[in-house]
Write a structure and sequence with these properties.
The chain folds into two domains: about 1-90 and about 200-220, Rossmann fold (3-Layer(aba) Sandwich), CATH 3.40.50; about 90-195, Rossmann fold. About 45% of the residues lie in helices and about 15% in strands. It contains ten helices and nine strands. The protein has a five-stranded parallel sheet, sandwiched between helices. Strands 6-5-7-8 form a four-stranded parallel sheet, sandwiched between helices.
């Protein structure tokens, strides 16, 4: 069984994409809404929460676990060795995807405060322009998404991405899986391609599994 976890809506996007790619696998999904949002947590708190999430998923039989959260992924290398085994953070594959998409290497990252503070993406893309937009996490958790946005919600998104306007960025990493729900809106505002971390995460996980069950989903909260 495959495990997938996040603090909420972003993980659900990754789960949906993984299910689209691999309808044959069994998946245990955990949304740790009680401790959301992860983007406001300290490093120590994140380590504790992520290790607990992994432990819970393993308790129901998950033997490969996707950390479908950029913020949680920033502390992966600080987890205990037993928690790093067969768990897959998403910062590196997302950064690699951005570097392959970008024509000029001018990459921006929009993320949570904790991800920005960690410098995780700059470890792969030293010159990345980073900006935190926690308001987009709140927006995603409210149920807002592309194709169903009010004018006020569009204004929130527009203001959140303003730091990337007119600064020569040619590719934008949606460095929080919650932001996947605004992929089309952000591309329309900025006129540049985005790298959807939730989509990249699901595709990476799909490559790592073979026959893993019958297609059932186990929901944990």
């Amino acid at each position: 069984m495959i495990g997938v976890f996040d603090s909420g809506a972003g993980g659900r996007f990754a789960l949906r994409e993984l299910r689209r790619l691999r309808g044959d696998i069994d998946i245990a999904f955990l949304a740790d809404e009680e401790n959301a949002p992860y983007g406001e947590r300290s490093e120590g708190e994140l380590i504790r929460l992520v290790e607990n999430d992994i432990k819970r998923l393993r308790s129901v039989g998950a033997d490969k676990i996707l950390i479908a959260c950029c913020t949680a992924s920033t502390v992966w290398d600080k987890l205990g060795a037993e928690y790093r085994r067969d768990t897959y953070p998403i910062i590196a594959p997302v950064a690699r995807r951005a570097l392959s998409v970008s024509r000029g290497g001018r990459i921006g990252v929009i993320s949570t405060e904790a991800t920005k503070r960690s410098g995780a993406f700059q470890g792969f893309i030293p010159d990345a322009l980073c900006h935190a937009a926690p308001e987009l996490v709140t927006l995603a958790e409210s149920g807002a998404c592309d194709g169903n946005l009010t004018e006020s919600q569009r204004n929130i998104i527009k203001k959140a991405v303003e730091p990337f306007s007119g600064c020569d960025v040619d590719t934008l990493i949606l460095g929080c899986t919650h932001f996947a729900y605004f992929e089309r809106e952000i591309e329309g505002i900025l006129g540049i391609p985005t790298v959807n971390s939730a989509r990249v995460a699901a595709r990476e996980m799909a490559k790592r599994v073979e026959n893993e069950g019958s297609g059932k989903t186990v929901w944990l909260t």
